[in-house]
Amino acid sequence: PRCDPTSLSPMLTTGNEQFITDHTDDYAALMERVMDPAAQPTNLHCTAGKDRAGLGSALVLLTLGVPEKTVMQDFLLSNEYRAAANQKTLSQLSGLLDANELEVMRALLEVRPEYLQAALDTMKDEYGSVDGYLRKGLGITPKERAKFQKLMLDRANG
Questions:
Q1: Cβ distance 67 to 80 under 8 Å?
Q2: Residue by residue, what is the 3-state secondary structure of 50-95?
């Protein structure tokens, strides 16, 4: 059976919702490490570096007080930075896959706004706000957040 590339969007959107509902402990552990001055610098990565790590990077930026719109723009930069590698992958597969299958692969290789938006919306639905998720879900106290902001933003400015 042919896979409709548009059917992947709901699957990947649901995956991002589940990052919030089912993997909060994992992201809490990530943020604990990222916020530890002794663990600086920290490298975030995963298999493709765009889904789990993309949300992790978004959480770091949100904790630092970066507006959601800017976080989304940063998230979508993966499409620009990964464009050449993604095109190479698609070119290598072009002799093995039909046009429909190549579009499915493209959908898997890209990031799309609805993926991160699903996670942000789930934070708001489950915790009242993104800040509520950071505080109640990830356990980041206002004092810890302020300390992290000072550490990272002072470092960036000085």
A1: no
A2: CCHHHHHHHHHHHHCCCCHHHHHHHHHHHHHHCHHHHHHHHHHHCC
Q: Are 30 and 59 in contact (CB under 8 A)?
A: yes
Q: Which two tokens stand for residue 90?
A: 């698609």
- Residues 8-20: tens digit of each pLDDT: 777 888 999 999 9
Q: For the segment 23-47, what is each residue's pLDDT rounded down to a tens digit? A: 999 999 999 999 999 998 888 887 7
- Here the tokens at position 69 are 């719109």
C-beta neighbour count of 139 within 10 angstroms: 13
What DSSP string runs through the chain? Answer: -PPPHHHHHHHHHHHHHHHHHH-HHHHHHHHHHHT-GGG-S-----SSSSSHHHHHHHHHHHHTT--HHHHHHHHHHHHHHTHHHHHHHHHHHTTTS-HHHHHHHHHHHS--HHHHHHHHHHHHHHHSSHHHIIIIIS---HHHHHHHHHHHHHHHH-
Task: Indicate if the alpha-carbon torsion angle 126, 127, 133, 139 is positive or negative.
Answer: negative
- Positions annotated as catalytic residues are 46
Q: How many angstroms from the chain centroid is the CA of residue 21? A: 14
